[in-house]
Amino acid sequence: MEISSITNEEWSELLGTGKWKGLLDPLHLNLRRLILRCGDFCQATYDAFNNDQNSKYCGSSRYGKKSFFQKVVLQNSSSYEVASFLYATARVSLPESILLHSQSRESWDRESNWIGYIAVTSDEMSRKLGRREIYIALRGTTRNYEWIDVLGAELESIEPLLRPNDDQSCGNRKQSSSSRSESDDEDDEKVPKVMNGWYTLYVSDDTRSPFTKTSARTQIVTKIKELMNQYKDEKLSIVLTGHSLGASLSVLSAFDLVENVVADKPVAAIVFGCPQVGNKAFRERLQKYTNLQVLHIRNTIDIIPHYPSRFLGYVHTGIELLIDTRKSPCLKDSKNPSDWHNLQAMLHLVAGWNGEEGEFEMKVKRSLSLINKSCDFLKDEYLVPASWWVEKNKGMMLNQDGEWVLAPPADEDLPVPEN
Asked: Is position 302 annotated as part of the catalytic site?
C-alpha cells in the first residue's frame, strides 16, 4: 500500500490543497491508499490499547514504541517509527468508555490513559519519498456508541487556544473583505466553540501523574515543534487521523496546530465517523487556514456523525467522502448501529468504493478477515470468528509455581513517561 512514486506536488493534492476536487468520485487510487493507511494507523490505537481492567496496566498501550508497528502487524511497518506516545486525563469525571482504569491496587497510573501516538516516516522511507511525513493518530472509544450520550454536549469556548491577534496567527489565513469586531460585547455566536468533552480531554493535565503532567495538547504541540526543528531541512507534512472520539480530537488538534504552530506546511485531518466538533464560528475560523484541510470518511447510515446535534448549535466540519456499508456483498444486513460505525467496515468500503452509482469492487487488496477484528459484521459464509483480535489466552500464562496469572509485559512494552 505504498505511495512512494508520487511527486511532492501530487502529495499536496492528496492532502487536500485542491480540496480533493476530482479525487473523490471516482476515488483516486493513491488517495484511497492514503485513507486506508490513516485507517490502519487509527486501528493500531485500538489494537494496542489495554482495556482489561484486571490488568494493572489497563489504560496503557500493550506495546512499546520500539516494536509498536510490528506488534500491531501494520503493513510496511519498517517504514514508520513512533516518535512519541500521547496520554490524556480529565479534570472532571468521564464515563469508563472514555478513560479506563485498572482495578488493581498496583495500577500503572490512576489518572491517565494512553490515547495515541505521533509517528514519522523512517530515514530510509523519507529519502525514498523525498519528504518526511508526520502522522498523529488519536484513539477513539473502546465501548459502544452510547458513550456519546453521557459525555455532555454543551459547547465551550476555545478562546485559550486562539491567538489574540488574527493578523499574527501562525497558519496561512485567507484575506477577508471585512474585519470582525473583537470587542467584549461580540455576539456569542461568533465565538469559536467546541464540545466540552473534546476540549476537556485535549487541554486537561494532572500533576499527580507522570504521564499527564502536561495536557495532550501540550504533548502534541511540544513534539511537533521538536520534529519541525529536527527535520527543518526536509519537506514536511502533518496528517492527523482518528475514528469516532479520536476523529473529533484530531480535528481540534489540527486546528490548534495551524492556529499556533504550523504556518507554511500542509496539515490534513483525515478522519472516520467523526461526531460534530464545534459551532459555525469554529468551522469558519478553521476554514480560513489555507494550509489545513479536513476529509471526513462517513458511512451514510452511521448515526454518530449526527451527534451532538445541529439543534444545539453544532455544524459539520470538512469535506465528506460518503460511503455506504450496504453496498458491500460481504457484509451482513446488520441493524446494529455499532456495526455501522465500525472502523474496519469503513476501511473495507474504502477499498472497494466506486461511488454511489457504481458497483462495489475491490480496488486495493485488503483481507476480508479484518472486518471482524472487533465485531461480527462479516457474513458467516466467510468462516471468520467474531472479534478475533485478542491477546493469546487473554494474556494469561502458566508461571513457574503452576499458577495461571496475567503475563507481565516485556520490559520494552512497559509504560514509560515521555518526559
From this structure: yes
Closest CA to 339 of 376, 296, 389: 376
| Beta-carbon contacts of residue 15 (< 8 Å; ≥ 6 apart) | 237, 239, 266, 267, 268, 293
Active-site position among 215, 244, 248, 328? 244
Residue 174 C-alpha from the chain's centroid: 27
Distance CA 38, CA 119 (A): 11
At residue 80, φ and ψ (nearest 5 deg) are -130, 150
Per-residue model confidence as pLDDT tens digits over 65-87: 999 999 999 999 999 999 999 99
Catalytic residue among 47, 52, 206, 302: 302
Which residue of the set 12, 60, 215, 341 is catalytic?
Answer: 341
For 325-358, how does the pLDDT look when each residue is reduced to its tens digit (9 = 90+)? 999 999 999 999 999 999 999 999 999 999 999 9
244 flagged as catalytic:
yes
Cα 94 from Cα 72, distance rounded (Å):
28
